Amino acid sequence: MWFMLVRSSAAVLAALTLVACASLQERAGAPEPDPTPALWSAYALSGEATQLAGWWGRFGDPALAPLIEQALLSQTDIATAQARLRQARAQRSLAAGGLAPRLGAGGSARAGLSEGRDSTESYGASLDASWEVDLWGAGAAGVRAADATLRASELTLAHTRVLIAAEVATTLLELRGTQAREAIARRVLASQQQTLQIAQWRLDAGLVTSLDVAQARTGVEQTRASLPGLTGSALQSMNALAVLTGRAPGALQAGLSTPVALPAAPADLAVSIPAEVLRQRPDVQAAERRWAAAAERVGEADAARLPSLSLGGSVGLSALSLGALGSGAGVASLLASVSVPVLDGSRTRAQVRLQEAARDEAGAAWRATVLAALQEVEDALVSLRSARERLVAEQAAVEAARTAATLAEQRWRSGLVDFANVLQTQRTQLSAEDGLASTNTTLATAHVRLIKALGGGWSSAPTDSATNGATNGAPNSAPNSATEKSTR
User: According to the model, what pLDDT value does residue 287 have?
Assistant: First the structure.
C-alpha cells in the first residue's frame, strides 16, 4: 500500500513540476576575491615560515604565558563566542532533525450518554508517523547551511582567541616599555640631582653663579615632572591587563609593579607567502563559510517554490473498555499528500531574492576580509622594518648622547664651558634613551601585530565538529587546551 501511495504521489508531482523544475536556481560559484599577490611587497622570503604555535614563549617574559592563559579562560569576548558556537551546534541539530520522520504516541478515552440508552465508552491507543520527503533538497541545503554556520562560529571563536592573546601580549609589552622609560627617567634624574648638588657646592665656593644652580634645578624638576605621566600610564596598562584576564582593575598591580627588562623581540620570524597566510587565518575562513551558508540558503528558499510530498500513517488499537484495550481491534491508516504553492503573493520569490542578496553580501564581506588581511600583514611588515631601521640609528644616538653628556659635565667642572651645555646634553641624553626604549617597545609590539596578522597560534586541522562537538580552530597551545575543556 505504501508503494502504491508513493507511486501515485510521484506521478502527480511529475505532472505538476515539469515547468517548476526548470525554475530552480543554479548554484552560484564562489566569488573570486581580488588576486592574491605571490609575495609580500615589504618582505623578502627566506626559508620556511616560522611555526607560530605558542608564540608568546618566544618573548621571554615569564608573566606573559600565565596572563594569556587566564585571558583565554576568562575573557568575556571569548565567552560570547563560545555561547554563539553552542547556538550554532543546536541549530545544526535542529536542521538535521527536520529531515527525519516523526513518530508520536497517543491515547484517547470517550464516554457518551443518550436519553433512553445505556452510557457508552470507547478507548484507543495509537502510534502516529509522518515524514515530509525532501524531494528538492531543501532540507539537505538547510543542513549544509547549518554546517557552514557552525564552522564559521568555530573559526570566529578561534579568531577571537588570536585577538585576545595578541591584545594581552601588546598590553604587557607596552607596560614593560613604560617601566623601562620610567627607569631611564629616574636614572637620569639621579644624575641630575648629583649635578645640582655639585653646582650648589661650586656656588658656595664662589666658582659659579646662581644661574648655574637655577639651570641645574630646572633640569631636575623637568625630569621629575615626566615621572607621574609614566607611572600613570603603567597603572593603566595593569588595569587593562586585569580586565583582559577577567579580573577587577588594580588586581595585578602587586604582581606587575616590579619592573622587568623589556622582552626582546624574536629576530628569526619568517613569514609565509600570502596565499598560505589567507589559508591559516581563521577570520578569512570564517568569512568563506558564511558565504557558503548563505549560498545554501538560496537553494533552500528556491526549493520552497516547488510542490512538497508528505507521508503519514497511524497504527492503533480501540476497545469499549480500558481493560479490553490490549486485545482490542486494530486500526491502521496511511496518508500521502501533495502541496503545491499556487498564489502566495510572490512571497516565495521574494524570499529567494532576499537570500540571493544575503549571499552577495556575504561574498562582498569575504572579499573585504581577504583584502583587510593582506593589508594587515603588509602594514605589520612595513612597521617592523621601519622599527628595525630606526632602532639602529637610535642606538647610535644614545651612545653619542651619553658621551656628549659626560664630556660636557667634565668640561663644566673644569670651567671650560657654561652650565647650559651640561643641561642641553642631559636633556638630549634623556630624550635619546627614552626614544630608544620606545622604539624597542614598538619593535616588540610590531612582532605581536605581525603574528596576529598571520593568524598566529591557531591550527586549521579539520575535525568533524557536527558529530563530536569539538571546537575546531582553537589556538594549538596548552592554554587554549584548557579553554577547550572549559567550553565543553
Answer: 92
Asked if 481 and 471 touch (Cβ cutoff 8 Å), the reply is no
Q: Please name which of 428, 401, 398 lies closest in space to residue 222, comparing C-alpha atoms.
A: 428
Report how far apart, in Å, the C-alpha atoms of 188 and of each of 33, 221, 222, 262 are: 54, 12, 11, 18
- The DSSP call for residue 61 is -
pLDDT value at 482 more than 60: no
pLDDT single digits (tens) 232-269: 999 999 999 999 998 899 899 888 888 888 877 777 67
Give residue 220's identity as a one-letter amino acid code: V
Q: How many residues does the chain have?
A: 488
CA-to-CA distance for 304 and 138, rounded, in angstroms?
A: 7
Contacts (Cβ under 8 Å, ≥6 apart) of 341: 304, 305, 306, 307, 348
The set of residues, in sequence order, having a beta carbon less than 8 Å from that of 86 and lying 6+ positions away, is none
Q: CB neighbours (10 Å) of residue 130? A: 15
CATH code of the region 39-109+120-487 = 1.20.1600.10
How would you list the strands of the sheet with 120-133, edge to edge?
A: 102-112, 120-133, 308-319, 329-339
Q: Report whether pLDDT(2) > 50.
A: no
pTM of the shown model: 0.77
- 96-119 core/surface letters (b: 16 or more CB in 10 A; e: else): beeeeeeeeeeeeeeeeeeeeeee
The mean predicted confidence, pLDDT, of the chain is: 79
Among 87, 65, 202, which Cα is nearest to 469's?
87
Separation between Cα atoms, residue 427 and residue 419, nearest integer Å: 12
Residue 121, beta-bridge partner list: 111
Write out pLDDT tens, residues 80-124: 888 999 999 898 888 888 878 888 887 777 777 666 666 677 777
Going by C-alpha positions, the residue among 388, 422, 479, 47 that lies closest to residue 198 is 422
Quick one: pLDDT band at residue 470, thresholds 50, 70, 90?
very low
Please give the residue that has the higher pLDDT: either 479 or 272.
272
CB atoms within 10 A of CB 418: 15
* Partners of residue 130 on adjacent β-strands: 102, 312
Phi, psi of 338 (to 5 degrees): -120, 130
- Please report which residue ranges of 245-281 form alpha helices under DSSP H: 253-256, 274-280
**DSSP character string of 34-101:** SPPPSS-TT----SSPPP-TTGGGGG--TTHHHHHHHHHHH-HHHHHHHHHHHHHHHHHHHHHHTTS-
470: its cell numbers: 569539538
β-partners of residue 357 are none
Of 2, 18, 46, which Cα lies nearest the Cα of 270? 46
In DSSP notation, 305-320 reads TS-EEEEEEEEEEEES
Predicted local confidence at residue 170, as pLDDT: 93
- 366 C-beta neighbours (distance < 10 Å), count: 23
